[in-house]
Amino acid sequence: MPQANFDYKRNGEWLELTVSVLKSLATTAVKDEQALQANSHPHHVRQWLLALALFPAKWINRLFSIGGIQMVDDVVKLRTFIPVEMGRDVMYELAKLPVIGRHNEVPVLFEDDWCLVLDKPAGMPVHPSAPGHRGTLDEAAARHCIKSGELMPVKHIHRLDDDTAGPVLYAKNELAQLQLDEAMRNKEIDRRYQALAQGQLKHKQGTINEPIGKDRHHNTRRKVSPTGDSAVTHYETLACYPRATLLKVRLETGRTHQIRVHLSYIGHPLVGDTLYGGSDPLLKHQALRGELLAFKHPFTGQMLTIHAIEPDWFRQVRERYAIL
Is 280 designated active site? Predict the structure, then answer.
Protein backbone atom coordinates (compact mmCIF):
# COMPACT_ATOMS: atom_id res chain seq x y z
CA MET A 1 0.00 0.00 0.00
CA PRO A 2 1.04 3.66 -0.36
CA GLN A 3 3.12 5.26 2.37
CA ALA A 4 2.74 8.58 4.18
CA ASN A 5 3.57 11.96 2.63
CA PHE A 6 2.27 11.60 -0.91
CA ASP A 7 -0.33 13.51 -2.88
CA TYR A 8 -3.83 12.19 -3.45
CA LYS A 9 -7.21 13.81 -3.78
CA ARG A 10 -10.72 12.83 -2.84
CA ASN A 11 -13.34 14.08 -5.27
CA GLY A 12 -16.73 12.99 -3.96
CA GLU A 13 -16.85 9.19 -4.29
CA TRP A 14 -13.59 9.09 -6.22
CA LEU A 15 -9.97 8.73 -5.13
CA GLU A 16 -7.69 10.50 -7.60
CA LEU A 17 -3.99 9.69 -8.04
CA THR A 18 -1.62 10.69 -10.80
CA VAL A 19 0.26 8.06 -12.77
CA SER A 20 3.59 9.46 -11.60
CA VAL A 21 2.58 9.19 -7.93
CA LEU A 22 1.37 5.62 -8.37
CA LYS A 23 4.60 4.61 -10.13
CA SER A 24 6.70 6.18 -7.38
CA LEU A 25 4.80 4.24 -4.71
CA ALA A 26 4.92 0.87 -6.42
CA THR A 27 7.34 -1.78 -5.21
CA THR A 28 6.87 -3.80 -8.41
CA ALA A 29 8.21 -2.52 -11.73
CA VAL A 30 5.97 -2.86 -14.78
CA LYS A 31 7.14 -3.85 -18.23
CA ASP A 32 7.40 -1.24 -20.98
CA GLU A 33 4.48 -2.77 -22.88
CA GLN A 34 2.32 -2.29 -19.77
CA ALA A 35 3.00 1.44 -19.61
CA LEU A 36 -0.08 3.60 -19.10
CA GLN A 37 -0.93 6.39 -21.54
CA ALA A 38 -3.17 9.37 -20.84
CA ASN A 39 -6.89 8.56 -21.00
CA SER A 40 -6.26 4.81 -21.20
CA HIS A 41 -9.22 2.43 -21.28
CA PRO A 42 -10.39 1.18 -17.82
CA HIS A 43 -9.37 -2.38 -18.71
CA HIS A 44 -5.81 -1.25 -19.43
CA VAL A 45 -5.79 0.80 -16.22
CA ARG A 46 -6.96 -2.25 -14.25
CA GLN A 47 -4.19 -4.42 -15.70
CA TRP A 48 -1.63 -1.74 -14.92
CA LEU A 49 -2.84 -1.38 -11.33
CA LEU A 50 -2.75 -5.14 -10.83
CA ALA A 51 0.83 -5.20 -12.13
CA LEU A 52 1.83 -2.45 -9.69
CA ALA A 53 0.45 -4.57 -6.79
CA LEU A 54 -0.33 -1.49 -4.73
CA PHE A 55 -3.89 -2.47 -3.91
CA PRO A 56 -5.64 -5.81 -3.20
CA ALA A 57 -6.44 -7.54 -6.50
CA LYS A 58 -9.89 -8.42 -5.15
CA TRP A 59 -10.69 -4.73 -4.69
CA ILE A 60 -9.35 -3.62 -8.07
CA ASN A 61 -11.33 -6.31 -9.90
CA ARG A 62 -14.53 -5.47 -8.02
CA LEU A 63 -14.12 -1.77 -8.85
CA PHE A 64 -13.70 -2.62 -12.51
CA SER A 65 -16.90 -4.71 -12.44
CA ILE A 66 -18.95 -1.70 -11.26
CA GLY A 67 -17.34 0.89 -13.52
CA GLY A 68 -15.25 2.21 -10.66
CA ILE A 69 -12.01 2.70 -12.60
CA GLN A 70 -11.50 5.69 -14.86
CA MET A 71 -8.65 7.72 -16.28
CA VAL A 72 -8.76 11.40 -17.20
CA ASP A 73 -5.56 12.76 -18.72
CA ASP A 74 -2.84 11.39 -16.38
CA VAL A 75 -5.12 10.97 -13.35
CA VAL A 76 -6.33 7.52 -12.30
CA LYS A 77 -9.75 7.67 -10.63
CA LEU A 78 -10.92 4.89 -8.30
CA ARG A 79 -14.48 4.87 -6.91
CA THR A 80 -13.42 4.31 -3.32
CA PHE A 81 -15.85 6.28 -1.15
CA ILE A 82 -19.14 4.60 -2.06
CA PRO A 83 -21.98 5.50 0.35
CA VAL A 84 -24.51 3.03 1.67
CA GLU A 85 -27.98 2.84 0.15
CA MET A 86 -30.38 4.19 2.74
CA GLY A 87 -33.31 1.86 3.17
CA ARG A 88 -31.17 -1.19 2.43
CA ASP A 89 -28.56 -0.97 5.21
CA VAL A 90 -29.90 -2.46 8.45
CA MET A 91 -27.60 -0.55 10.79
CA TYR A 92 -28.43 2.80 9.20
CA GLU A 93 -32.13 2.03 9.48
CA LEU A 94 -31.69 1.42 13.21
CA ALA A 95 -29.59 4.58 13.54
CA LYS A 96 -32.46 6.69 12.17
CA LEU A 97 -34.70 5.63 15.06
CA PRO A 98 -34.82 7.55 18.37
CA VAL A 99 -31.78 6.83 20.55
CA ILE A 100 -32.30 4.27 23.30
CA GLY A 101 -30.12 3.70 26.34
CA ARG A 102 -28.03 6.18 28.30
CA HIS A 103 -25.35 6.83 25.69
CA ASN A 104 -26.71 9.51 23.36
CA GLU A 105 -23.34 10.15 21.75
CA VAL A 106 -20.10 8.19 21.77
CA PRO A 107 -16.85 10.22 21.75
CA VAL A 108 -14.87 10.20 18.50
CA LEU A 109 -11.14 9.69 19.12
CA PHE A 110 -10.05 9.83 15.46
CA GLU A 111 -11.65 10.16 12.05
CA ASP A 112 -10.70 10.76 8.44
CA ASP A 113 -11.92 9.52 5.05
CA TRP A 114 -10.68 6.00 5.76
CA CYS A 115 -11.30 5.08 9.37
CA LEU A 116 -13.08 6.01 12.56
CA VAL A 117 -12.15 5.29 16.19
CA LEU A 118 -14.93 5.48 18.78
CA ASP A 119 -14.44 5.46 22.56
CA LYS A 120 -16.87 2.71 23.56
CA PRO A 121 -18.41 3.13 27.03
CA ALA A 122 -18.80 0.20 29.41
CA GLY A 123 -22.20 -1.45 29.08
CA MET A 124 -22.54 -0.98 25.33
CA PRO A 125 -22.15 -3.99 23.00
CA VAL A 126 -20.12 -3.46 19.83
CA HIS A 127 -22.54 -5.28 17.53
CA PRO A 128 -26.09 -6.69 17.66
CA SER A 129 -26.58 -10.10 19.25
CA ALA A 130 -29.83 -10.62 17.32
CA PRO A 131 -31.72 -8.90 14.47
CA GLY A 132 -33.11 -5.56 15.59
CA HIS A 133 -30.88 -5.35 18.68
CA ARG A 134 -30.60 -1.65 19.58
CA GLY A 135 -28.07 0.46 21.46
CA THR A 136 -24.88 -0.96 19.94
CA LEU A 137 -21.65 0.79 19.04
CA ASP A 138 -22.23 -0.16 15.40
CA GLU A 139 -25.50 1.76 15.54
CA ALA A 140 -23.71 4.73 17.16
CA ALA A 141 -21.13 4.68 14.35
CA ALA A 142 -23.88 4.79 11.72
CA ARG A 143 -25.65 7.59 13.61
CA HIS A 144 -22.42 9.58 13.69
CA CYS A 145 -22.09 9.20 9.91
CA ILE A 146 -25.68 10.38 9.40
CA LYS A 147 -25.00 13.50 11.47
CA SER A 148 -21.80 14.24 9.57
CA GLY A 149 -23.48 13.69 6.20
CA GLU A 150 -21.01 10.95 5.26
CA LEU A 151 -23.08 7.78 4.81
CA MET A 152 -20.14 5.42 4.70
CA PRO A 153 -20.35 1.61 5.21
CA VAL A 154 -18.66 1.65 8.63
CA LYS A 155 -17.52 -1.81 9.81
CA HIS A 156 -15.81 -2.61 13.12
CA ILE A 157 -12.37 -4.21 12.79
CA HIS A 158 -12.15 -5.65 16.31
CA ARG A 159 -14.41 -5.95 19.34
CA LEU A 160 -14.48 -5.32 23.08
CA ASP A 161 -16.59 -7.11 25.68
CA ASP A 162 -19.87 -5.33 26.42
CA ASP A 163 -18.66 -4.10 29.81
CA THR A 164 -15.14 -3.14 28.70
CA ALA A 165 -14.61 0.52 27.80
CA GLY A 166 -12.10 1.74 25.24
CA PRO A 167 -11.25 2.53 21.61
CA VAL A 168 -12.79 0.51 18.78
CA LEU A 169 -11.56 0.85 15.20
CA TYR A 170 -13.93 1.11 12.21
CA ALA A 171 -13.21 1.06 8.49
CA LYS A 172 -15.20 3.55 6.41
CA ASN A 173 -14.80 1.95 2.98
CA GLU A 174 -14.05 -1.44 1.45
CA LEU A 175 -10.37 -0.76 0.75
CA ALA A 176 -9.77 0.33 4.34
CA GLN A 177 -11.62 -2.74 5.63
CA LEU A 178 -9.52 -5.12 3.52
CA GLN A 179 -6.30 -3.51 4.71
CA LEU A 180 -7.27 -3.35 8.39
CA ASP A 181 -8.66 -6.91 8.43
CA GLU A 182 -5.33 -8.12 7.09
CA ALA A 183 -3.48 -6.10 9.73
CA MET A 184 -5.58 -7.80 12.42
CA ARG A 185 -4.81 -11.25 11.01
CA ASN A 186 -1.10 -10.38 10.97
CA LYS A 187 -1.24 -9.07 14.58
CA GLU A 188 -0.20 -5.60 13.45
CA ILE A 189 -2.85 -3.70 15.43
CA ASP A 190 -1.64 -3.02 18.96
CA ARG A 191 -4.30 -2.99 21.69
CA ARG A 192 -3.35 -2.10 25.24
CA TYR A 193 -5.49 -2.15 28.35
CA GLN A 194 -5.53 -1.22 32.00
CA ALA A 195 -6.93 -3.82 34.37
CA LEU A 196 -7.45 -3.88 38.13
CA ALA A 197 -6.80 -7.44 39.34
CA GLN A 198 -7.61 -8.75 42.79
CA GLY A 199 -4.65 -9.42 45.09
CA GLN A 200 -0.96 -8.81 44.47
CA LEU A 201 0.71 -10.68 41.63
CA LYS A 202 3.86 -12.64 42.39
CA HIS A 203 5.69 -11.26 39.36
CA LYS A 204 5.78 -7.59 38.35
CA GLN A 205 5.49 -8.55 34.70
CA GLY A 206 4.97 -11.67 32.69
CA THR A 207 3.28 -13.49 29.84
CA ILE A 208 0.34 -15.88 30.06
CA ASN A 209 0.42 -18.29 27.14
CA GLU A 210 -2.54 -20.62 27.61
CA PRO A 211 -5.15 -21.71 25.05
CA ILE A 212 -8.72 -20.58 25.60
CA GLY A 213 -11.88 -22.47 24.66
CA LYS A 214 -15.58 -22.53 25.49
CA ASP A 215 -16.80 -23.76 28.86
CA ARG A 216 -19.32 -26.50 28.03
CA HIS A 217 -20.94 -26.05 31.46
CA HIS A 218 -21.67 -22.34 30.93
CA ASN A 219 -22.86 -20.71 27.71
CA THR A 220 -21.11 -17.36 28.16
CA ARG A 221 -17.94 -18.42 29.96
CA ARG A 222 -14.58 -19.27 28.45
CA LYS A 223 -11.80 -21.23 30.12
CA VAL A 224 -8.19 -22.28 29.69
CA SER A 225 -8.35 -25.56 27.79
CA PRO A 226 -5.72 -27.66 26.00
CA THR A 227 -8.14 -27.98 23.06
CA GLY A 228 -8.79 -24.24 22.90
CA ASP A 229 -7.36 -21.58 20.59
CA SER A 230 -3.91 -20.12 21.16
CA ALA A 231 -4.02 -17.07 23.44
CA VAL A 232 -1.12 -14.87 24.61
CA THR A 233 -1.44 -12.06 27.15
CA HIS A 234 1.43 -9.82 28.34
CA TYR A 235 1.08 -7.88 31.59
CA GLU A 236 3.08 -5.31 33.54
CA THR A 237 2.42 -3.91 37.01
CA LEU A 238 1.64 -0.19 37.15
CA ALA A 239 0.74 0.06 40.85
CA CYS A 240 0.34 -2.25 43.84
CA TYR A 241 -2.48 -1.63 46.29
CA PRO A 242 -3.21 -3.51 49.54
CA ARG A 243 -5.92 -5.65 47.92
CA ALA A 244 -5.44 -5.19 44.19
CA THR A 245 -2.90 -4.61 41.42
CA LEU A 246 -3.21 -2.14 38.58
CA LEU A 247 -1.88 -3.71 35.38
CA LYS A 248 -1.00 -2.66 31.86
CA VAL A 249 -2.00 -5.47 29.51
CA ARG A 250 -1.10 -6.11 25.86
CA LEU A 251 -2.72 -8.78 23.71
CA GLU A 252 -1.07 -10.83 21.00
CA THR A 253 -4.33 -12.61 20.24
CA GLY A 254 -7.96 -11.58 20.53
CA ARG A 255 -9.90 -14.40 22.15
CA THR A 256 -13.25 -13.77 23.78
CA HIS A 257 -12.77 -12.68 27.43
CA GLN A 258 -9.02 -13.29 27.04
CA ILE A 259 -7.73 -10.92 29.74
CA ARG A 260 -10.46 -11.97 32.16
CA VAL A 261 -9.85 -15.69 31.63
CA HIS A 262 -6.06 -15.50 31.83
CA LEU A 263 -5.92 -13.39 34.99
CA SER A 264 -8.51 -15.59 36.67
CA TYR A 265 -6.47 -18.65 35.64
CA ILE A 266 -3.40 -17.36 37.53
CA GLY A 267 -5.51 -16.63 40.61
CA HIS A 268 -6.11 -12.90 40.15
CA PRO A 269 -9.57 -12.30 38.64
CA LEU A 270 -10.50 -8.75 37.75
CA VAL A 271 -12.16 -6.62 40.38
CA GLY A 272 -15.93 -6.81 39.85
CA ASP A 273 -15.76 -9.73 37.41
CA THR A 274 -18.24 -12.11 39.00
CA LEU A 275 -18.26 -14.39 35.93
CA TYR A 276 -14.63 -15.34 36.57
CA GLY A 277 -14.39 -15.21 40.36
CA GLY A 278 -13.95 -11.50 41.01
CA SER A 279 -16.09 -9.33 43.25
CA ASP A 280 -16.66 -5.75 44.35
CA PRO A 281 -19.47 -4.28 46.47
CA LEU A 282 -19.91 -1.25 44.20
CA LEU A 283 -18.74 -2.21 40.70
CA LYS A 284 -21.10 -4.49 38.78
CA HIS A 285 -18.74 -5.42 35.94
CA GLN A 286 -15.05 -6.08 35.38
CA ALA A 287 -12.50 -3.32 36.06
CA LEU A 288 -11.03 -3.31 32.55
CA ARG A 289 -10.59 -0.56 30.00
CA GLY A 290 -8.91 -0.18 26.64
CA GLU A 291 -6.20 2.42 27.01
CA LEU A 292 -4.47 2.58 23.63
CA LEU A 293 -4.92 1.52 20.02
CA ALA A 294 -2.00 1.71 17.56
CA PHE A 295 -2.20 0.80 13.88
CA LYS A 296 -0.90 1.73 10.45
CA HIS A 297 -3.25 3.94 8.49
CA PRO A 298 -4.99 1.70 5.93
CA PHE A 299 -4.05 3.96 3.02
CA THR A 300 -1.09 6.19 3.87
CA GLY A 301 0.74 3.65 6.03
CA GLN A 302 1.34 6.31 8.71
CA MET A 303 1.51 4.91 12.24
CA LEU A 304 -1.38 6.16 14.37
CA THR A 305 -1.54 5.90 18.15
CA ILE A 306 -4.94 6.63 19.69
CA HIS A 307 -5.35 7.11 23.46
CA ALA A 308 -8.65 6.81 25.31
CA ILE A 309 -9.49 8.98 28.30
CA GLU A 310 -9.80 7.09 31.59
CA PRO A 311 -13.53 6.69 32.38
CA ASP A 312 -14.76 8.18 35.65
CA TRP A 313 -15.92 4.77 36.92
CA PHE A 314 -12.47 3.24 36.40
CA ARG A 315 -10.73 6.15 38.11
CA GLN A 316 -13.11 5.91 41.05
CA VAL A 317 -12.58 2.17 41.60
CA ARG A 318 -8.83 2.55 41.17
CA GLU A 319 -8.68 5.37 43.73
CA ARG A 320 -10.89 3.40 46.11
CA TYR A 321 -8.57 0.40 46.06
CA ALA A 322 -5.52 2.61 46.50
CA ILE A 323 -6.68 3.50 50.02
CA LEU A 324 -8.48 0.30 51.12
Answer: no
